Amino acid sequence: MGNRCRPEVSKGPAHFCQKGRVPSRALAWSLALIGMVVGLSARGVQAEPGGLIYINTNFAHASPLYWETKPDGAVHIYLAYDQERASPNRANGHWFFQLQAAPGAELTLVLHNFDNVWNGKPGSPLDDRTIGFASVDGKSWRVFRAETTPDNCLKFTVTVRAGSLYLARLEPYGLSDLEALKAEIRAHGDVAITNIGRTVEGRELEIIRIGRPDAPNRVLLRGRAHPWEPGGNWVIQGLIRRLLRGDAKTQRYLDIYCVYIMPIANKDGVARGRTRFNMLGADLNRKWDRPPDPNTNPENHALETWLQAMIDKGQTPDLMIDLHNDNGGKLHISRPGIDLETYLAKMREFETALRKYTWFTEGSTTASFRNPGSIGEGLLDRFGINACVLELNANWIAGLNDYPSAQNWELFGAQLGEALYHYFKATADER
Ligand SMILES: [Zn+2]
């Protein structure tokens, strides 16, 4: 064996014996030193000069990353891109982690890897208004401004007063939040929750029905095709709670429409803290111009199978809204090369109702806008459904003159209940 490491002899960590057997006195000193360091760390002395001890990503919805602290004390964090299969597209935009640091440490963070590729072209999720959210307990969040650097990084400074601090791009909405909501509403007489399939990793996908199936109008909502975009989930939660309030207005709403909701389409991506694609690299808001591949895209396959069954029993949704986040906040109306007159009239009514009954002011896409393969265009083109993508501005809500907090998105959801009522009233004669 010569000088090779023999743990059964040295009884020390393997790296002590890389240059041969460690003399017993040196080993004793080494162990004593390690004991001191461990003891000091346990009493809160930091491992790094700036005060950082660790970046914790060992929880659901945390983003994959690695980091290094530079000589100036700035902590550089490198996010892992999501990649799309058979495509140059890649995406970052979600970040969610917990800083563990000496109490009172002031840390400058520089987040890297926002050089995205979107629809085959270079793109970035950052702009000069990009914000982030901080929370000590992971429940109540405060907003902060961040700076975009010339090399497309995101830079900000935070103080870790209590020894740990959660940081996230937007107020997180995870799978446990959805489970809590389901538990809250499950027993209500106007609620039905149906499992319609499973994700790549086997998580159950559900459709939540709010209202009565024999209502004259049906609306389908989808949230979270893209995991970094939690806005839709807060909207859905606000809408569901509004519709189940049981007051006179709610009764009027549910007399004329019934809502079907796929709340979190990309459950695996949410659980694993990814940005855009499913765990086999499928974009759940692309390739809706054809039936989804059940092997690589079971999430969309489950939704289309459910949709086809609804169509087969004469219950085709009259309106479909896919909820997203971006830096613009517009209603996306895609215009494939078909007769669009009826569709565009409906979309005008929908936009009017949004402007009148919610805080929405951002408007809709121009006449030349197309986003081929998006669910809005695909469901219109293939099934004749009045479908659209509603982006929610991830930096600013102009109609409220406020940041996009979870509370403001829940308010939009509650207002959407009213907007849908007036939309269906206004379009009743056109059906
Ligand atoms: Zn999106």
Structure, described:
This protein is α+β, with helices and mostly antiparallel strands and 431 residues long. The chain has 3 domains: 35 residues, no CATH class; 117 residues, Immunoglobulin-like (Sandwich); 256 residues, Zn peptidases (Aminopeptidase, 3-Layer(aba) Sandwich), CATH 3.40.630.10. 29% of the residues lie in helices and 25% in strands. The chain contains 10 helices and 21 strands. The strands form 5 sheets. The chain has a 7-stranded mixed beta sheet, sandwiched between helices. Strands 1-6-14-10-11 form a 5-stranded antiparallel beta sheet, with no helix packed on it. A hairpin with a 5-residue loop joins strand 12 and strand 13. Helix 4 packs across helix 10, helix 5 packs across helix 10 and helix 8 crosses helix 10. The radius of gyration is 25 Å and the shape is globular. It starts with 6 loop residues before the first helix and ends with a helix. The structure holds zinc ion (ZN). The site of zinc ion has 5 residues, from loops. Zinc ion (ZN) binds next to loops.
